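INFO  loader      accepted 1 record
INFO  loader      residues=416
INFO  predictor   begin
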Amino acid sequence: MNTLPHVLFINHSIRDGGPGKSLFYILKYLDRTKITPYVLIPKDEVFSERLKAEGIYENIILDKRFPENLKRPRFGKSFLQEGGSGTTAYYNGLLKFLSVLLNILDMLSLIVTSPLLLRRNNIKVIYCNGTQAKVVGALIGLINWCPVIWHVRNIQQTKLLGSIIDTLSRLPVVRRIICVSGPTASPFNRVEEKVRVIHNGVDIEDYNPETTKGELRAQYGIAESTIIVGSTGRIVPRKGYDLFINAAKTVIDKLGKGPKDVRFVIVGDTPYFFQDDHLSFLKNLVSHNGLDDYFIFTGYRKEVRACLKDFDIFVIPSNYPDPFPRSVIEAMAFELPVIGFKAGGIVESVEDGVTGILDDSGSPENMGKAILKLVQDPKLRRSMGVAGRKRVVSNYLAIERTKDIQKNILEVLGLA
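INFO  predictor   done
INFO  writer      dumping tokens
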């Protein structure tokens, strides 16, 4: 009989975004001689496929009442077209409202019936990975008086949600709040005794440029001599890709529209539950600036490593306080210099002037100047890239960060 403590990991990030990747590494390196993990997810997707590929698809609980996003459509992904007449807009809004309402009711059903779930699986601690998971997990912990651990991976952008998170954080059942950076920890100053800062980690061999084969140059016919400036992530407004495009215009204006010695690549898409098609907006912006010959939009890729292999420079153009973007340390592991803004947790991962260039103005012109500097200086690109991988090895190994996380779980269990 398994007498080890059972820990329920709640995760709504079922695609291969940052939160899902982070939890994957936790589950991969968790010491199963001390803890038995259970995982609650909405459905099988990229996240669970990775678990299966690693041979750790175990004790998985699938429950569609826990949606991957509150905006998940309940009446088809595009039941009605955006825009159009006032009547169409009214019904669009009504259907979106009903979708959100039904998703909330589903989550309430999950919370109310959680005593059976916890008792059946003998759960001793609830580990919440992501914003929705924090809310649901705290309420499940409250009605079952079960200890809860939060893994905070973002900085709340709305006052309402920030207020809800702040209130729930003070519940006695929320025993530990693990934050991925200092900026993500700052909102919890009233419960600072619960807070621990543990940065994200990567498996350095998963992101090894020496053992990874690139695919962008072959797929798009890009010469080896051409500098590829790339970025990866969700195509949503707060990620600042419009700034990246404007920065690219600065570069091309300086270089001149002659031979294509530089190309810009954006890897990602706009999730279906976002209202606006931001990807189309960005493509139109590229065309408006006359940059069609210089830009590539690859769309969503389950795996970005083959893209990173072909990048020469990595840009993180987020125009909001990005908590501690995993994409940055993945790029650094691939020996890529990183360009971004001094906002959020990026300043904790990128050493300005050593592993990349950070600007505190938020100016696309300054970002363009930084890109141009690295485009024209291969020695600087190389030195920053090498320094970046060394920094990852020293500070952001997944196996080491998982040991820190496991220590916190055992402390909450009273076993450390």
